[in-house]
Amino acid sequence: MSRPPYLPPIQPYHPTTFLERGVVVPFTTPLLGGTRARPAEKRNLELVVPNPSGGRGVYIMPWTSIGAVCRPTLHDKLLNSRVATVSSVTPSTIRRVAREIAAEGLAGEAAMEAAQVAEDTDKGDRLTTNYLLLMNLIDLVNAGSSARPSTRGPDPAELEKRARQTIAQIAPTLGQSTHWVATALETIADIMAQVGLGAGPATGRVPRLISLLHRARTDIAGWSRTQREDDQASYARMVCLVADHTLTMAETTLAKAQALTTDMMGLLRTWSTDSVSIVRLVERPEWLLDGWEQICLIWNYAQDDAARRAALVEIVGLVPVLPREASEWCEPTAKDREPVRFHRLVNLNEDWRTGATVFDLIARNEHIRSLAC
Predict the structure, then answer these.
(1) What three-state secondary structure class fits 293?
(2) What pLDDT is recorded for position 115?
(3) Is residue 322 over pLDDT 50?
(4) Residue 52 has pLDDT above 90, yes or no
(5) CB neighbours of 191 closer than 8 A, spacing ≥ 6?
(6) Reported confidence tier of residue 132, pLDDT bands at 50, 70, 90
(7) Is 292 exposed, middle or buried (0-12, 13-18, 19+ CB in 10 A)?
(8) Phi and psi at residue 278, in whole multiples of 5°?
(9) Does residue 319 contact residue 239 with C-beta atoms inside 8 Å?
(10) DSSP code of 147?
């Protein structure tokens, strides 16, 4: 008789860096909620799985051992295998892989359609960002010579002509070719599209996610004031406290990233010598917010008091731990949250956190995938 697979021992968990914390993988299997992927020592990936009992600690296991925790859905099996092939683990790369899986219909038709809509939205963000970068550059070179074009954009032919003239004018100053400058602007636009440029209506995924978290945090705080149970109030306070610290740091790092474009010549000079530092600076707010979209959507999905009480218990186990690296990005803020432990008997095929059946939660998680895509 073969020996059953054994789970690795539970480990204390307070990561030093965001890369050590890993990136949330949007699995649909309930027991894999909050699971993160991170690089392993031998060039593979490993999974960081929250303690299923709700206590402190996590399971660290190779990505190939996902079956030791539960029986994953077909969506999760394929997502897990695709994630293992990524060259770097970042929120953007994991989101891209998850969207590709959703586009294949493995999380339902709604998620498949939403994946296409999200792709179109990202394309619009890139076009808007590219346009605004060009306008910043044109304004810099032709300061005071003409009014800034409308955000709707001037005649495309006229914009292209002005852009070519501007690039040709600044390229010698940078010691680069016009082709290099044009390519650099397009690449920077792709990177900055996630954070936007802070002009006009919010563009970029990060500003939209910050708004989503603000609304969910306000809603949780308001709902908790109507509850009489002390445990519900304490859970809500903990979630709101960490959300507040996260929002403060995310908004600070977002402002620093957007400020890069106020000096376009300086940005291009830095890009020519140290593009990695710019990429890392722009990625910071997304690392800080990683995992919060799922929390917001779980909360928004719950409509009545009973569903919200269950959602809050689930959310407490999903609140991201802030790595020590966060204090290097911003002023030190949050302390490590106190462990939250839950003990209760559950029935077969019932999730201990929510009381819902596993099958209902899978359906809910697939619906959330359609919203998150």
Answers:
(1) helix
(2) 87
(3) yes
(4) no
(5) 278, 279, 282
(6) confident
(7) buried
(8) -70, -45
(9) yes
(10) P
In this predicted model, which residue has the larger pLDDT, 317 or 248?
248
Q: Alpha-carbon distance 101 to 82, whole Å?
A: 9
Integer Cα distance of 195 and 283 in angstroms: 9
Are the C-beta atoms of residues 294 and 320 closer than 8 Å to each other?
no
Looking up tokens 């899986």, which residue turns up?
Answer: 101
pLDDT of 340 reads 43
Structure tokens belonging to residue 15: 């990561």
Are 240 and 279 in contact by the 8 Å Cβ rule? The answer is no
Partnered with residue 357 across adjacent β-strands are 350
User: Which DSSP letter does residue 30 get?
Assistant: G
At position 285, the amino acid (one-letter code) is P
Quick one: how many helices (H) and strands (E) in the chain?
13, 4
* Top-ranked range on mean pLDDT: pick from 262-271, 327-336, 363-372: 262-271
Query: What pLDDT is attached to residue 179?
Result: 93
3-class SS of residue 149: coil
Q: How far apart are alpha carbons 21 and 318 in whole angstroms?
A: 13
Q: Are 17 and 323 in contact (CB under 8 A)?
A: yes
Q: What is the pTM of this model?
A: 0.83
